[in-house]
Amino acid sequence: MNDLRFPTALQMVLSLAVAREAKRRCTSMELATGLGANPALVRALLVPLSRANIVTTTIGKNGGVELARAPEEISLREVYFAIIDDKRLFERRTNVPSVCVVSTNIGSFFEELATEVEDAMLTKLGQRTVAQSLMEIRRIDAARIANVTEIVAD
Amino acid sequence: MNDLRFPTALQMVLSLAVAREAKRRCTSMELATGLGANPALVRALLVPLSRANIVTTTIGKNGGVELARAPEEISLREVYFAIIDDKRLFERRTNVPSVCVVSTNIGSFFEELATEVEDAMLTKLGQRTVAQSLMEIRRIDAARIANVTEIVAD
DNA sequence: TCTTAATGTAAGCATTACGATTACACTTAG
DNA sequence: CTAAGTGTAATCGTAATGCTTACATTAAGA
What we know:
Two copies of one chain form a homodimer.
Chain A: H1 5-21, H2 28-35, H3 39-51, E1 55-58, E2 64-67, H4 76-83, H5 101-126, H6 130-153
Antiparallel strand pairs in A: 1-2
Chain A binds a DNA duplex through residues 1-5, 27-29, 37-41, 43-44, 46-47, 57-65.
């Protein structure tokens, strides 16, 4: 089973960015509906997002979720890091015996390699903000609609 | 459970690069010993490596495995791609309903994003060859030995 | 030709991590 | 006081992978 936490959290944040334009809050139920998922799953993901100061949750009646900052100020790297954090992209083997120069040092080497590759990935994510991503989503939507119209016209 | 195929294959290829210097072949048993793993596991990974022309296997008595090319000519990207291939780094959610502009287009958007991030990672891996990696391993080993000597001297 | 040493491959079990759901405690507006 | 929210724990199902065993296949060499 693949890890869907990042795509899920990303969609949540993007939906919150849309709601923010209307100065609205979302409930975990609304977010769950957009995902085709369960509100409890959404709330579980809200915990680390809240801890990272990406969203703000309000308990009680009329409560809900909103972005803690302007979407221009939130990078996808922050979202990824808030959600994933501990898990390394590449995990190394454990219990490798020391029987040659390779087996003895592969652990350190792989750690270096994994860090470097992971940094490259995070840098890429750091170059994108939530605001830009929302613009991109709308660009994709416009293209989709234009395409549908064209097909209908045939 | 984390996917250990890439680190496993990488160690195998590095061990084969060492063996190549001595003009030796390795058996899957030898490689498995260095990994602390089972020969059948090694042989399963040998199949895609062989298909990608990274290693050459020889069946029968006195058979075994060797690098198919010089270690300078094999990038870590090739090793990664040979082993992982199908599996995307980021998987998107399935069955997302179309209830708003975000949920309707998040799939396409995430696909674009995942491709870009994955390319960044593969580029990083493409900049490293097996030969360079082996040199790096030996550098780490030398540093480790120097450190041990220093501690013993205290 | 027979034995031996190797790869190729399929089948089955255990483990792990995550998704999904349910349930309930807690909080706050009106 | 009630309704509408979040916070969180517990449980189950499932998919992917590692690990192991077993056996078929192949080829060298006595």
